[in-house]
Amino acid sequence: VGSIKVDVMRPLGSQRVSVAPEAEEEYSVKFPPKGGGEPMRMEVLVRELPQMCGVMSNEQDNDDTDRRAAAEDSARSYIERWRLMDFIREMLQYIIREKPQDPYAFMSTYLRRRTRRERESPSYRDPPMEASINQDSLRATIARQNARLDAENERLRGEIDNLRQFCEEKGLPPVDEPLDLNIDAAALEVNQDLSGRNSQLKIE
């Protein structure tokens, strides 16, 4: 649930209204009296108008969706690789338990001590290469693109079947057979006719 702020010019008053996302609704906004004046009321219609903001094509939307999904997969892989959520949760629990006077300096000291302990551990090793880390997100992106292409191919097959059925109903040649227009023969006949006329003009 989002919110919008409605201001009356000057301003004479202001109020916030909770609006439902992706919905068209009318809201009644009441402004409290100011300086002994009369209370005000305003009716506001809130709706989405993407055509007023510019609309991208479906292909651009799909590309943006894939890009966002790939970025989310990469961020998730990075967080899981370093176990950042577990580390942050542990640090916050430690701070809440100790309640230091300067929590930021306390966190800085905690991070330095934890980093030193991790690097001195015998099991510490350098992180893997970024290319190997992003393999999972790359596979996920390829899988989404393949699914989108499969859906597009299925749609095209349906359109071809509908066109083939239309041709059969109208007695037209099937769409998978070439149209026999005999263009070469027609062109030869026109050429012979023009040659005959040129010969007649030369004789005259």
TrEMBL record:
Write out the entry's keywords from A to Z: Coiled coil
* Listed name of the protein: Uncharacterized protein
Give the domain of life. Answer: Eukaryota
Name the coiled-coil region(s).
135-166
What organism does the record attribute this protein to?
Answer: Alexandrium andersonii
